[in-house]
Amino acid sequence: MSRLRAVTVAAVLASLAGCGAGHDFHDLQGYMDEVRARPKGRIEPIPSFQPYEAFTYSAANLRSPFQPPIPVDLARQQRGSKDIKPDENRVRQFLEGFNIEMFEMVGSLSNAEGMFALVRGAGGVHRIRIGDYLGRNHGKVVAIETGKVDVLEIVPDGDGGWLERPRSMTLKERS
């Protein structure tokens, strides 16, 4: 054991002897002299404070840049009819308070009363039937099939008339 210890001590002493012998520290000494020569007592001033300016997002009502623009051909644009108009005197249903785009068909049911569609949206799954209203544009459910719900919306045409706009929701599988 003493021989192993003697060899280890000799190796450590040999490596330590090589650390200080023959090295030149002129570059380190020059840097330290430069730092010591700098003027003392002068502290850089604190940078001036820039107040925060709040940003208000004002493009929320514009078209999403990720959806293609809708081409508008004024010559071909349908004109509304004075005969078509929504029934403003009827009692509004719960699902009319939401945009129709947020609903998706997730199933259908049928029994002795008829065919029903299951739509998800507005915080849950809702059962609708022909004659129910859906969406903010007076959308009336006109047909229900196993994989599709047809809705007829009544929308203003911009000239004081109303247009009927058909929409369909297809069954979304694996939801």
Polypeptide structure, described:
- It comes from Pseudomonas flexibilis.
- This is Pilus assembly protein PilP.
- InterPro entries: PilP.
- Pfam families: PilP.
- The protein is an alpha+beta fold.
- It has a domain of 77 residues: SH3 type barrels (Roll).
- Strands 1-2-3 form a three-stranded antiparallel sheet, with no helix packed on it. A three-stranded antiparallel sheet has the order 4-5-6, with no helix packed on it.
- A hairpin with a 2-residue loop joins β4 and β5.
- It is elongated.
- The relative contact order is 0.12.
Topology:
Layout: H1 2-20, H2 26-37, E1 104-111, E2 114-121, E3 124-129, E4 140-145, E5 148-156, E6 162-170
Antiparallel strand pairs: 1-2, 2-3, 4-5, 5-6
Short description:
The chain contains two helices and six strands, in the order ααββββββ.
**Order of secondary-structure elements:** HHEEEEEE
Distance between the termini: 75 Å
Name the strands of the widest sheet in spatial order: 1-2-3
Q: What would the CATH topology of the domain at 94-170 be?
A: SH3 type barrels
Percentage beta strand: 25-35%
> Which class of the domain at 94-170 in CATH terms?
Mainly Beta
Strand element count: 6
Assign the structural class, choosing from mainly alpha, mainly beta, alpha/beta, alpha+beta, or little secondary structure: alpha+beta
Question: Which outline best applies?
Answer: elongated
Unreliable parts = none
